[in-house]
Input
Amino acid sequence: MAETTQAVKEKTEKEQYEQNQVGQEDQKTQAQSVEFSEASETKSTGPGTSIDILLDMDVPITVVIGRTEVPIQRLLQLSPGSVLKLDKPIEAPAELYLKDTKFATGIIVIVEDKFAVRIKEILGTGAAMTANKG
Output
């Protein structure tokens, strides 16, 4: 008797599953038409255009004058007055990065007792991508 009850229960569950599958397939195949209104061009209501907000933003630029690698042991021994030798000669241009993308090269100069960079070359998109990978 327990086997018969179990068989009826399994049959009922199977039928419910099949009905759910059929119902879901019907829902998937039903399509409704939708009408979209034509988008109209709107004029800016503020004092400037949307790009004006970007023009007032500051973006961080990183200037790299050289790189080096040191073992951890040497790094732990560094103290004030230690000197790290960089991989570039002094006459080599500095690299300017916006985020992780190199976009220009320049020469380090001093302006009013502060370091500054005189832009030597602005790199195009292709050149910046190639330089970034190298």
Q: What stands out?
A: Helices lie at 2-29, 52-55, 72-77, 125-133. Residues 2-29 form the longest helix (28 residues). The chain has a mean pLDDT of 80. The CA atoms of residues 5 and 106 lie 85 Å apart.
